Amino acid sequence: MAAIGATPRGGVRRLALSAEDAAARALFRRWCEEIGCTVRQDAAGNLFARREGRDPSRPPVLIGSHLDSQPTGGKFDGALGVLAGLEVLRTLAETGTETEAPIELVNWTDEEGARFGRAMIGSGIWAGQLDPAETEALTDAEGITLGAALNAAGARGAVPARAFAADSYFELHIEQGPILERAGKRIGIVTGAQAQIWLRATLRGQESHAGTTPPSARRDALAGAAEMVLLVERIMQDAGEAGRGTVGALAVAPGSPNVIPGEVRFSVEFRHPEEAQLAAQAERFRTEAAAIAARRGLALVLEERFRIPAQPFDPACVALVRQAAERLGLPAMEIVSGAGHDAVHVAAVVPTAMIFVPCREGLSHNEAESIDPSEAADGAAVLLEVVLARAGRVG
Amino acid sequence: MAAIGATPRGGVRRLALSAEDAAARALFRRWCEEIGCTVRQDAAGNLFARREGRDPSRPPVLIGSHLDSQPTGGKFDGALGVLAGLEVLRTLAETGTETEAPIELVNWTDEEGARFGRAMIGSGIWAGQLDPAETEALTDAEGITLGAALNAAGARGAVPARAFAADSYFELHIEQGPILERAGKRIGIVTGAQAQIWLRATLRGQESHAGTTPPSARRDALAGAAEMVLLVERIMQDAGEAGRGTVGALAVAPGSPNVIPGEVRFSVEFRHPEEAQLAAQAERFRTEAAAIAARRGLALVLEERFRIPAQPFDPACVALVRQAAERLGLPAMEIVSGAGHDAVHVAAVVPTAMIFVPCREGLSHNEAESIDPSEAADGAAVLLEVVLARAGRVG
Q1: Mutate which: B118, B174, B180, B209, vs A, most A CBs within 10 A
Q2: How close, in Å, is residue B6 to chain A by CA atoms?
């Protein structure tokens, strides 16, 4: 799978609904059909590979993740969950193991949000968290709508994109952070996902000549933005190791070395496991950023792009993950997901849990993203355990 | 002149050697020929309109500026100096005033540097400060070389582009800053141009996931760059009102809201009338920026793009400007040019001075650039005085 969209530095570039993503989807379909699964695609491009159960009327156990990547992404982010799910199905096929309930392996469309500016699209539409029409109208940098891209990639399935009755959903994913590795643990028992708030800031000053404008006459939008970047960092640090606060995108206009910046636009996001804490952080940012702007004679506009509530996972599903790790003798710890995942959307409508495995130095969204094969095997082993527990082994 | 390349918001777009610039050059030529001047063009496109003196063997007094503009520039930046020079020649023609020495009004090619990435090109080649072959190989955003653009605009003259013996050079220009307006002065007696140093900084940290990377594991290139932007501002402020320090361009990679920035590239420029002060500022920036990078685990590379020495103007020419303002009863003050000007190149080979007039709120490189007609008239009156003093009125 990593050969599709492989980059020279060992990562992948497999943007959602690109030619590379289409190739990955075709390979997924072929591999699933080779082991006797029936593959269907919904109107949002989500691919479901069904391994029938002894009782086809029982709601299926869902497992999976996503095959799309960041522009310079790693080989494991998303793909691990899909391919470990495939490995579970292959293991059942090779050992002739039958389950009571069907098992469906899913590849969700556009988890990364790198192309159309919104993440977890396929699972969000499926779980009723995103409006399909509004979402399909999102455009990429070339003005192509998500709807048009779905059609172009052959990803527009006939099945409606909406949640169906499912027993449970389990997603294996790399942690994408350094916590498990630092703690020397092999398995993360993910108890839920932290709350997020995303803001867009526009800061306007006065564009003027860098050589002729004395200090007292400057209204430098970039200097003001620099203070706000450090404010975000300070708010994060004040929350201790659970704190997350990031300015990831920042654009300067006019962006010429000898012109004092007149306008800076930047993103701000905070995340925290507790919503009250998160709200307090966002409020502190609004207050202190407004004071910075006022002191510098700048005009600040803050728009809230979105807010994701904290999403606790299903206690019974989480307990199954804990028990599987124990049974397999794998050192495990509870962890709150710092990243958004398809599982966060799915958890709104289906009992859900996630399994994390460590990745080197916590690196992700990066071509250097790396895990040890034994860690992938551990994660897949836990996934197999919980799937068998939930779907029921026949005989 | 402002009708050529006029923009909807009252400015001009007359990029060097564009169709608009060619039209401006043709109008300049016509206006000069209408009052009996002989116009010649050199190989760098510099246009010289000569009004003969009683003694043609005397080196001419040069006056002028440039007709090209920024992409969204103002009507007065450059054009004021050329058209005030034309007004001087017209006044001499209308009053039948003869001078001992010839007077040459010059329109220098591509002062702005907005198209080919280097400023003050025509005067730089003329004064031997720029290599003609290297300069002509510069390309614009469409890959057109400056040499090809010279030919396409009909601006390739037969006369070699090199300095000839000239008595003096006077350039009237808007201040492009707020100092005269704030001080309530009508005339700036420009004593020289400040020294400049331009750096390019590349700061590398660790690209990683905004949601999963705890504070202690972050190496955020943008947070480090933010400290350096504020360091530039502090160094500027410590130099008082003469200080100039600007980060005008800054680009973040990968530039995604949920990815901790792995790399930031930004420009740094400092300017100061005194070279020793400037060198100390640059040194302080290097030292303190290196400390910021080290503390944050970031890798900083600083490249010096160029350094422009301070250019004092000719004391005798500067004195003439002062005397003219006094004689005309115009409130005047000494000022150091914060911007680069053709006069800075010319001063290397010809006794030179500049005359500044205020502009509203110091705005320039901006469509809203504005001056009062009486200020244009004052500037032209001072220019006429110094030209007559230098060229010698006959009789």
Answers
A1: B209
A2: 20
pLDDT digits (tens, 9 = 90+) for A150-200: 999 999 999 999 999 999 999 999 999 999 999 999 999 999 999 999 999
> Is B240 exposed, middle or buried, given 0-12, 13-18 or 19+ CB atoms closer than 10 A?
exposed
Record: contact B247-A211, CB cut-off 8 A? no
- Which chain A residues are within 8 Å of B278, Cβ to Cβ? none
Range of the domain at A333: 19-193+310-391
For residue B177, list chain A residues with Cβ-Cβ distance below 8 A.
208-209, 211-214, 217
Name chain A contacts of B255, Cβ cutoff 8 Å: 248-251
Q: Does B206 touch chain A (CB under 8 A)?
A: yes
Distance from B214 to chain A by nearest Cα, in Å? 5
User: The whole model's pTM is what?
Assistant: 0.83
Distances from the Cα of A133 to the Cαs of A110, A121, A124, A148, B170, in angstroms?
16, 12, 12, 12, 65
Minimum distance, in Å, between the CA of residue A247 and any CA atom of chain B:
6
Number of domains in chain A: 2
Chain A hits for B365, Cβ within 8 Å = 207-209, 259
CATH number at residue A211: 3.30.70.360
State the burial class of residue A373 (Cβ atoms within 10 Å of its Cβ: 0-12, 13-18, 19+).
exposed
Task: Tell me if A188 sits within 8 A of A379, measured CB to CB.
Answer: no
For residues B30 and B113, state if they share a domain.
yes
Give ipTM to 2 decimals: 0.85
Single out the residue in A274, A291, A308 at which a domain terminates.
A308
A8 within domain boundaries: no
The sign of the dihedral angle between the CA atoms of B283, B285, B291, B293 is negative
Domain presence at residue A5:
no
A210 neighbourhood in chain B, CB within 8 Å: 244, 246, 248, 269, 271
pLDDT per position as a tens digit, A95-120: 999 999 999 999 999 999 989 988 99
Burial (CB count within 10 angstroms: exposed 0-12, middle 13-18, buried 19+), residue A284? middle
Q: What is the CATH number of the domain that holds A95?
A: 3.40.630.10
Long-range contacts of A25-32 (CB under 8 A, 24+ apart): A25/A67, A25/A107, A25/A153, A25/A154, A25/A155, A27/A1, A28/A67, A28/A82, A28/A86, A28/A107, A31/A86, A32/A86, A32/A89, A32/A105
A236 lies within 8 A of chain B by CB:
yes
